[in-house]
Structure formats: C-alpha cells, structure tokens
Structures
1.
Amino acid sequence: MAKITIVGTGYVGSVSGACLADFGNQVICVDNNAEKIEALKNGIIPIYEPGLDVVVQRNMSCGRLSFTIDLASAIMQSNVVFIAVGTPPAEDGSADLVHVESASRQIGSLIAAYTVIVNKSTVPIGTGRKVEGWVKEELVKRGTNIEFDVVSNPEFLREGSAVYDFTHPDRVVIGSSSERALNVMKEVYRSLYLNETPYIETSLESAEMIKYASNAFLAVKITFINEIANLCEKTGANVKDVARAMGKDARIGSKFLHPGPGYGGSCFPKDTRALATIGREHNEFQNIVEKTIEVNEYQKIRAAKNIEKVLGALKNKKIAILGLAFKPNTDDMRESPSITICEYLAGCGAVLRLYDPAAMKEAQWRLASIKNSIYFAANEYDAIQGAHALVIATEWNQFRNLDLGRVKELLVEPYFFDLRNIYKPEEAESAGLHYTGIGK
Ligand code: UDX
Ligand code: UDX
C-alpha cells in the first residue's frame, strides 16, 4: 500500500482519493477551497456523484481517508502525490495549466524524500515533462536535489458512474520510464493489478496521448452516428435499427452509438478542442476531430431548429423541456445541448417550462441570460402543464415512463420531441401525440 496525497478534490480528485483509500492505501485529499474541505470532513460531498458519499464515509471512518487544506503536512506524510486540479479550456481551446503548474511548484517546494508525482488531470501531451521542470526549479530554489519521478495516470471516469469506472476500469494506464516509479504505482493499484485488470505501462507522452485519443474517438463516434441519424430522417431509414446492426460488428461495438442533440460535458468538448490545438501546434492538423467539434455544435442547433420547423412561429409558444444536465445522473450542465436549445427557443420568443431532477440549481445561473423566458417547474408534469410542446433533452430514467395519456391531457398542443429516442413513435402516437425523434 502507498501513502498518497491528492491535490484537488473536484470530480476526479474526490473520486480518485476515495477509491484509492478503498484499495487499502492511506490517502489525504487536499484542496485550496476551504469550504469544500469542511464539507468533505463532515462527509458532505460537494459534487453530485451517486455512491461517492458511501465510499468517502466508509474510508474516513476506518482512518484511511482524510481531508485538509494543509498541503505541506499532507506531502510530508506521502510517497505519492496525485495532481487532480482543474485543466479548464483556455480561450484558444488549449488546456489551461495554471493550476497544474501551481500544484507542481507547491509540491516541488515541499517534498522531503523520494516522491512519485502523478498527473491525474487531463493534460496536453508533453505536460509531464513540464511538471518535471517546474518541480526541479523549486528544488534548485531550495538548494536541494531530492529525487522524484513524474508519472502520467489518466482517468477514464464518466460523470454519474465515476466510482464504478474507477473500481472497474477497462484498463489502468501508467506512463513513466522509471522502474522505481512503476513499482510504486503497482503498489498504489495493487488490488486491481492482482485481479488481472488490464494494466498498461507506457511512456509519459503515450499515456497523455491515450487519454486525448480515447475521448476524441468517442466524440467522433457519437458525431458519426448523429450525422447518420440526420440522413436517416431524410431517407426514411431508422437509425435505431442502423446503430443496432452496426454495433453487432465487434469492430464497431454498440456503445456510444446513440444519436442525440450533440455531446456535452466537461471532457469531450474540452479534450477535443485541446487535441485540435495540440495538432495545430505540431502542424499535424487533427482534421476529423476539428470537424467533429464543428458538427457537434451544429447538431445542438439542428435539434432546436427542428422544433421550430414543426411548431412554426415560436413567439409566446410554451415549451416544456425535460432534462438540462448534459447526461443523466449528474447535475453538471457544462456544454449541455439543453443550453443551446433553450437559448435558441427563448431567442425566438418561446416561453420555457424547465425541469431536471438534479440540475435545477445550476440551470438558474447557466440560463440567467434568458431567465425572463423561463418557468422552473416543480416536476415533469408541472413543466408539461399547459405547454404547446414537450421536449425530452436528457434521458433521465424517470422520463422513460411518463404517463403519455396524462401528457396528452396536460399539453395544449400534442407535440412531443424525443431528442434521446427513449420512446417508440407508435406508443406516443397511440396516445394521440405528434412524435418527433432523432433519426427515425
Ligand atoms: C479536472 C479537469 O476538469 C479534467 O479534465 C481532468 O481530467 C481532471 O481534473 P475535475 O476534478 O472536474 O477535473 O476538476 P474540478 O472540478 O475543476 O476540480 C479541481 C479542484 O482542484 C477544485 O476543487 C479546486 O478548488 C482544486 N484546486 C485547484 C486546488 O486544490 N489547488 C489548485 O491549485 C487549483
Ligand atoms: C467522458 C468519457 O466517457 C470518460 O471516459 C472520460 O473520462 C470523461 O469524458 P463524461 O463526459 O462524463 O465521460 O460523459 P459520457 O457518458 O462519456 O457522455 C458524454 C456526452 O456524450 C454526453 O453529453 C452524452 O449525452 C453524449 N453521448 C454519449 C451521446 O450523445 N451518445 C452516446 O451514445 C453516448
């Protein structure tokens, strides 16, 4: 087992810290946001991640997991330090490394014995070398040359299933050329390593590339099926059947082949833009990724324009929209298609009746610019009451079993836009609704 400090208790840091403690390591989670740390010390999780509270409480109560703002004391007790601070997109699309550099320098100014420094945050290829440089500069300032190694250990966590993804990874990727560091990392992931989880050791740069290439490929795959869906609508094909049959080919696979109003979240948009920027910097343009970014923005607007095409003039039309988070089981609305759709419809004069099981608080500020056009509903049926149309934008489970007869009664006009294809057209039409899906 290892003695670990996690710097940054956001989505990635808090899940990684709790799960690494669950693997039997001694873990101290550090954050420079004191309220977050206070909340976590009281077992309150500042992010919406199903199941994380149980893992945090279990490991806190048996003393393997603790939280502090005191980075110095944490580092003194650790032989592994994970950097899991935010890497938000900068103006030009590149990843902003200001937090990674600040964390690296703090670590360099504090280590007192051999330490493995692990990049968990998604960082541009080559950042591992920069972290080495920043730490070395701090050691020179101290007039000391304590040994350390930098390792890249990218995360593949999906929001809403991050705990499961961390404890049941398809693969663990470790990027380093130091045998000593690789041995320490085997200790960190001992419980996964022993139960045959695919464990890939590679170079620092390859590990950094694996993360971007994986996320970008998933974004491309989604965008591919979105464009096929658009064409299915025009050719009378049914994209559900097309995707199902494509997915039976093991080389294609059925995952991430569900058409929708475009991908959102904090990762795909950020990581595709960062990869495109890295490609331009090295004069190896990532043309498919660049096109994917462009087409994904179009897909969001296309969904809104389709609603306008069916409803006609939107002025004073009341439109119920169910689902604001970028996907189910999260309260995160970063780059959510619902933002584009709400802004477009409000811009055309529509009045929006919104409901989401977890994102209502975030929606208040994310949609502040159109707040005069919004009624924040108490539940899905309250949203539907008196509306001219119902739009499902995020496939929360509770939206999968609406009482369609009641929906028909509550709607002023029977229009139903299912942007996630969770209903069959015939079941909606038999309830008297005018159904519009994606790609069918
Ligand atoms: C982030 C990136 O968004 C993601 O792309 C990457 O894969 C992992 O890191 P996330 O955990 O969601 O994911 O970051 P965020 O939610 O922004 O949390 C970062 C945390 O680090 C915040 O709590 C912030 O207060 C903290 N932080 C930031 C520090 O403790 N020290 C710093 O110097 C900077
Ligand atoms: C993603 C990657 O899956 C994860 O490995 C990486 O570590 C972080 O980024 P996340 O962004 O949390 O995870 O969500 P994900 O479940 O991947 O969905 C991303 C977006 O794609 C969502 O907006 C979702 O609605 C959309 N999506 C996903 C589709 O439109 N169709 C699909 O078939 C799958």
Note: The CA atoms of residues 218 and 256 lie 7 Å apart.
2.
Amino acid sequence: MSLASPVLEAKGVTKSFGAFTAVRNVSLAVYPQEVVAIIGPNGAGKTTLFDLLTGRKAPDSGEVSLFGRVVTHEPPWRRVHRGLGRSFQVSSVFPTLTALENVQIGILLARKQTFQLFGQASLAHRAQAAALLDQVGLRDRMDRLAGELSYGDQRALELAVALSSRPKVLLLDEPTAGMGGEETDECLSRVKAIAAAESIPVLFIEHDMSVVFSFATRVIVLVAGEVLVNGAPAVVRADERVREAYFGESF
Ligand code: ADP
Ligand code: MG
C-alpha cells in the first residue's frame, strides 16, 4: 500500500468559522482499493472535512490533492471531472424529477453537456441511467418522482447520481443515515459490490459502528476537528482514547 500513490490526500488542512476551528491540521490519504471510514462524535468536523476534500469549502491553510494533483482551490465540478464522486449527508436529489431524470442530469453534468439539460434530457443517456439505477436496486422505480421515493430509496438514488460521473474515488457522507437495519445492509452490500467491481476506493463518514467495522479497511477517528486515531479497524476498536471519545456508546 505504501508503494502506491494516494488517490486523495489532505495535508494539514485547517478550516475555521470565525473564532471556531472546525477542522484543525488534518492530514489523511486514501489509497487504491481502500475503504476508509471517518468516524467521530457529532460536530467533530467530518462534513466540513468532506467539504474541503470536495471543494465546497476552501481550507484556511493546508493542501488537498486528487490523483497527485493539487486541487486545494479548485471548484467542486472540476474535481468531479477529475474523478471525484460524492453523495451528501442531506439529500440532494431533485424531488420533482423522476429517478431516471435525476441520473440522466448527473450524466449530462459530468459530460459537460449542460446545453442538453433543457429539452433533450429526457432522451439523453437513458440506457446508461437505467443501468445505474439497476446497480442501486431502483430499476423498477425509475419513473417515480424522486420526492415520492422512500428515504432509503432517495439515498440509493443519490448513490446512482454520484456514480453517474464515473468516479474514480467515491466520498459518501453518512450513506446509511436514517435507514432501517435492512435498508442499511442493502445499501452497504451495494456500495461494496460497486466499489469492488469497479475498483473504486471509498471514503465514507458513518455513525453506525457496526457498519464501520463490517465495511472499512481503515478507520480515521476525528474528535474536535483533529485526527485522534488512524488505523486498522481492530486497532481503532481497541483504542482506549476512542472509547473515551465515545463513552456510553458500545462498539
Ligand atoms: P460533523 O459532520 O462531524 O457532525 P460538521 O463538520 O458538520 O461536523 O461541523 C463541525 C463544527 O463546525 C460544528 O460545531 C458546526 O456547528 C460548525 N460549523 C459547520 N459549518 C459551519 C458554518 N458554515 N458556519 C459556522 N459553523 C459551522
Ligand atoms: Mg456531518
């Protein structure tokens, strides 16, 4: 692993909101084939860190690289074109469009075919969009309005939209949030299958420890904006400091 170059890397990134530092001097790297979980208590800075990695926010200091290229100040769309796929903690699908249309628009945006957004979107890339919906288990619901899908199905749709840009690394912010046990298992086995089939490394934020320890090949613990521990799941699970940060929670 140490011989490979990271697909995604942060070096000493810091982000403050006024006097409050949400992410402090964080360094991390994601290597090919890895499934890395970021865990940490609410407010630890996980989503802010994702924003720095995806370009929704710029760090005050530090550097972000994607496939060996410094992208610290590049906007999100440029990072998407470089191969970064992302799903959000808060649902980002268009509720009044069908599931199929949501994915078609994702494909058009990724291919910069925005001139087709109006008019031809309903025809464009139909087969590819349907195939992506099939991959996430939504083929039979592709003509339903996104806003009418169950919460779990909306998250699955978001995953299909994230995949529509053919990402080479996938960032998922709490992909199973709000899902029941069965939905969580389905969602995870899908992400696992897709990541394995297409060799896409995954960096995901997750609050459910059973998910983390059944899925991740490495775990990064963020507490108060800083990396507390970064290591193999078994090592993290046994770490006394992690147990303290999560006192009361068992995992
Ligand atoms: P997590 O995803 O780990 O729950 P966040 O990254 O969402 O944490 O938030 C980390 C901290 O930064 C929280 O205390 C939050 O209130 C604060 N924060 C996040 N975004 C902003 C913002 N835009 N302005 C001010 N404070 C923010
Ligand atoms: Mg968050």
Note: The chain has a mean pLDDT of 89.
3.
Amino acid sequence: MHAASIPPPDAVTAPWWNATRERRLLIQSCAACGRDQHPPRSLCNHCGSTEHLSWGDATGAGTVDSFTVVHQAPRPGADVPYVIARVRLDVGVVLLTRLEGRQPDDWSIGDTVRVEWAPSDDGRALPVFVHAAGT
Ligand code: ZN
C-alpha cells in the first residue's frame, strides 16, 4: 500500500506529520478542559483555548464507527474498490481514514482495528487501519 498524495504540513499540523516519520500517531489534547481532538487545530474544539494544547501518543487501537466502499475511482489510476471509514480510537477521537487488508464486504461496524502506515515518498506516512488480529 502506498499513499499517492498527502497534503503538505502547515504550522499547526507539522508536529503531527513529523511524528508519522517515526510511525507515531499523535492526538492533540487540551489541558484547559481535558479533551482530545483530531485533526490538529490551532485552538481547542471544545473550549476554544489556544494556549493549552499539547500532543500525546495514541495506541493506534480503535473500532470502526462507520464506513463506505468506494467503487468509482476518484482519479485515473486509483485502485478501487477501497474503504473509507470513520475509526473511533480508544482515546475517543474519530479519524477519517482507510481500512486495508480485507475485502471491502468483510468489514462491519464495530470491528476492532489497529493502525498501520502507508508510506509516502517524502518519509511521512498516512495512518490506515487493519483488522485487529485475535478479536
Ligand atoms: Zn479545551
């Protein structure tokens, strides 16, 4: 698997992208209200704080919240079908991501998953999710 194109980092997302070089999944936390959020932002979604945001490592374990099988290639050369999903991490935040490693029809809502990394040419990587073995 390979991430064909991923967005450039900006001032807010650079720490998050840099962690993907080490295959670490960071989640932004707010010390002011104690909530986590994703994707990274310059202010807290919950209380609006801009000064109390910090980064923590997520385990990469989660469950499938919802998913869609994409049958029509969004651009020439894209491999279809593939699965776009909302994955709820154990820490509570939701990632919009891809499910890999199974036939699209084999997935169900509530499946347990763990993170894998789809490398890009510049050393960064995109988190994708595979079925968690033994569950
Ligand atoms: Zn907050």
Note: The chain is about 5% helix and 40% strand.
4.
Amino acid sequence: MEYYAFIHFSINTYTDMAWGFGNEDPVLFNPTKLDCRQWARICKEAGMKGIIFTAKHHSGFCLWPSKYTDYSVKNAPWKNGKGDVVREMADACKEYGLKFGVYLSPWDRNHPDYGKPEYITYFRNQLKELLTNYGDVFEVWFDGANGGSGYYGGANETRKIDAKTYYDWPNTYQLVRELQPKIVIWNDGGDRADLRWVGTEAGYVGETNWSLLNKTGDVPEQMLRHGLENGDTWVPGEVNTSIRPEWFYHEREDRKVKTLPQLMDTYYNSIGRNGTLLLNFPVMPNGLIHPKDEQAALSFAKAIKEAFAVNLARNTRTSASQIRGGKPEFGSMKAIDADKESYWATDDTTRKASLTLHFNAPTSFNRFLVQEPIWLGQRVRAFSVEALMDDNWKEIAKETTIGYKRILRFPMVKATQVRLTILDAKSNPLISNLEIYKTPIILTPPTITRDKSGDIRITPGDTESELYYTLNEAMPGPHSGKYTTPVKTSDGKVNVKAIAYNPYTKQSSIVSEEKFDVSRKDWKIISTDKQQAYQVLDGNPSTSWHQNKSQGMPADLIIDLGKLEKLVGFRYLPDQNWWADASIITHYQFEVSMDNKIWEMVNEGEFSNIKNNPFWQTKSFKPIQARYIKLRALKNTQEGSASGYAEIDIITP
Ligand code: FUL
C-alpha cells in the first residue's frame, strides 16, 4: 500500500498532553466541528490508501461507545453522548475509497483491572467490538508503549507487566484473524506479527532493509532498522512518523509542521527504502486537521507527482548479461514494461548479472527506481548503478538491498546508457521494474540556532545556496540581510526568519523560523565543574552532555541565570543520538531559587513518549521570579544510572 495515514485524536487532545494519564474527565471531549470526512478527504487528496485511527490511546478513553466501559464518548457532551467517532471515521473511509484501520492501545491507564488477567478479557472484548462492527479493517496497531504509572480506576500507581506474556498474544492474534482474515497486525511489544516497527519515529528505515525477521527471539534496535537477511518470517518495516513533532495536536507546534524538503526526505527514506510510510495527522480540539498540515500533505503529494511524472526508462532499448533459458518471457524488457507482474530473470545458479538501458540520446536524470517481484522473495544483497558518459562508465551508486521498492537519489548525470548490476543475491536475481527520473530540485530551508553568547547561526542544507534572514518578523528574500557570519543580537528575545536562495535558478527555499528566549550568555552551570556540561547551553542540538549518578539517586542540573528573571516555563531537549541508546529523562522536577539555598518546586511530571520521540519538551508554570534553576531527573530511560541533555532553556513571558 506504500502510503497511508495515522490519525491521533483522544481525550489528551484537550489537555495538551502526549499521553493521557487516564483520569481526564470525559466532559472535556467536546469537538465543535468534528468532521471525519475532512480527514478522509485530505488523506485521499494526499494520495494515501488508508487511515489508521486511534480508537483508544494509552489514556483508555474510547472514541466509540464501548459496551464494556463508561470511559468513552458515551459520557462526553459531544452529540449528547450519542456519538461514535470510530463509526464516522469508518464511514468516511468508505465514502472516500480508503481502507480503514484501528489503533487499540494495549496499555490502558484508566482501567482498574490493568495488570490483572481480567483486563485481557476486557481488551479482547473491545477488539471484538472494533473488528466486528465497523466493516473491513486492514490493519490493527498494538502499541508497545507502557510507562507504568496511571490512574487505574483511582489507584494512581505504577503497574508493571511483562509485555511478552501478559497479553497472551498468540490467542489475541487468533481472535483478530478469525474476525478479520485479511488484516495485518502491527505489534512492537509482543510476539512477531505481520509488520515491524523500524525502531524510530523520526521517519526513516535503514538503507539495508530486509523484510525478514525470525519468528521468535529478541529483536535488537539494529535489527528493527535493517531486518534480518536470513530471517524465517516476512515482517516488512512500516515507517511511522508524524507530520508535526508530536503525535497529538499542540498549538505550539503550528510552526513546526514538517516542511516539503523534510517530507521528501521521509519519502525517500521510507518508501524509497523498501518500507511503507504511515504519516500521522494530529486532530485539533475542534475536531479538524489544521490547514497547515493539510497544505503540507497536499504539497508533498504534488511534489511526488511532479518528481515521478515522466519515466525516462520507458521506451528505451534494453539488454542483459543473461536471460533465464534465453526465453523472451524473462527478457530484460520485462523490467521496463507497464506490467508490474512480469520480470527479468536469470538462470537458477546465477548470482551476478546486469541489465542495461540504452537511451536514444544523451539523457539527464537524478533518480533511479528499482523493484524486485517480492512474491518470489527478497533476493538482492548488493547492486550498483553505472552511467555511460562520454564513452566512460561511471559508478553513480553502490547499494545493498532492493526489496519491494528502492529509490536512489544522486546529483544530476547526463548519460547515453544506464547499467544495473546485481553484485550478489540470495538466489538468482529477478527485477520486475526499473524507472528513471529527472526530478526538480527542492531547496532545503536553513537551520537556525542561537549559541550561548546569544549569536544567531544559520546553516544551509546544501553548498550552492545563499542565505538571507530577518530579525523583525518580515519575510526574508534576496533583498534582506545576507548571512555570512554569526549575527550579534541584544540579550533579549529574538525572532529569526531565514531562507536559502539559489542565485542561478533564482529559486528560494521555504522560510525557516525560530523564536529564541533571552540569551544564555551569563548563565553558569553550578552543579558540576565539567566544562562539557556547557554543551547543554551551546544551542547545538547535536552535542550533548551526560551525567552519571548512582542507582536510584536523582540527578540535578543547577544553573545560575546571572540575574533575576521572570520565568513561566522551561524547555528540555534530550540527547538526539537515537541509535546510541542515550539516556533520556522521563520524569522530572523543576525547582527555582533566589539564592541557591531555598528552593521552590514549581513543576513536576513526565516527558511522555520522549524515548520514541526525542523532541523539545516544553513545560509551563505560574510566573515566578528566580535567579537559579534546577532540573532534577527522577527517572531515565536507562533506569537510574545517567541523564542525558542536548539543551536546556527557560521561557519568559
Ligand atoms: C507511540 C505512542 O506512545 C505514541 O503516543 C504514539 O501513539 C505512537 C504512534 O506510538 O509508541
């Protein structure tokens, strides 16, 4: 299916939280403009093939009137308790010709029985409702997240379960398959199902990507990213990511909707790497998708359409180093015909072979798309692409796996022939499709940071663009300030807008925008004398600092702001080095002081879902004057031992 949507909408949409705790009052759920047809229309126009809807997220709040709980739309003011969002979603999917899927969180922070065997009966009853009453369901999503703590019917405690055994997945799967024989099951917490998580919510899978894993055994993160070459079970990777930093709607992220270059990267790093793309839309409290998200999804669809409009491989002459039994039905032209089911094949014992496309005239291109007929398995281990330019063969790519679809990006070349060489394969190589494109260049908007001294730094996404910026809210263009060296600013708040501009094509990127709070120039870290700690104030998200503390002890980071400030919140950016399994703070307290002696706690809580989605965490509190701040890490992703920070900042009114 390649591309389909996630929709996150629940009770925590009304409390501005990433995860509901399970005690949120259903009275909050009152979308005044809820329109599932708007969601379906946007997804359809965006070129998506289906929608997976959060029927129940971790809060336990049900978006359908489940017979088995009162914690649902039944007790919400919306439609006087007579509404059913799951029904409206399923109907809208049908109307727009989209497949319909459900997300049912196994972790339920509301249910009193969570953790006991009785809950499994409840969970299965809910599954039965969702998989019998709403027509065909193409995918069910069993999120593995479990933060332990919850309301649990008023117990307000932490409950630990063993995700491998507690849900009795084999019997749960059997029930699912009986009710919906054609469904695919997604599960990252328990037994291997039909699709695998790729180990990140950032929107990419490994360049080497096998659609295989073993039926049993642990799956380390590297394996989620790359699959397992000799795995015994077909478990393709599904790349799930949100169109904004978080999964649920937060007004503060209206400026953070993914840009076209970011979405194009996501496309090439998911669909272009043998994965499917599950792109999320958060729904606003009023029940609609924000116009900025709609616009981003539609311009993404338009850009994909434009990029892949003219297939330059069609109508070329083809030749191959070998053809299975010399038979035309396995000939090289089968890789460029319109029939996706026909394929070029080599003899059984062959492991290395090449296929060449001959253009009529020198042709410019910058994309190469290749597909294996995966109903016969994923075979290719290594391949290269070469171009014949001025009678010389030049290698333009050397890669590993292909699978269902692989798309390569490279700088424009002009050639008379293109040669795909399969260098190694698990069995004789087969290629069902080859396409070649010349796609328009999309300029990447620059990155804006503010370093500790308060200077603004603007970094381009490529080597050819010039950078222009404004500090006065005006739209930047080639007539505004040209960025050459870091820009000095006053110590106050700064709003920066910047663009990349190509002077040759006169093309501009979209505008990047950052709003910085007061400068951190005079800040001193006083809880440690390690100079490396200052990386949390350097404005650079890719540098980080870790402090070790003994097991179970909180880790404090204390900062002297240099002068009294009026504070209304703080921000924490965790270590961004995803694959290093960096330790990230999950539970915190934030304290302030006038004199570094008497401290007052102004805020405490959890950074929900921070492990999978390690973005800026913003917390607000009642205005207070202070000179010293203390971020106390109570719990980390790596239980107890270390705390990792990329950046810390304050929020002033
Ligand atoms: C995660 C959840 O914890 C998030 O809230 C979100 O639903 C995402 C798709 O999966 O694990």
Note: The first helix runs from residue 36 to 45.
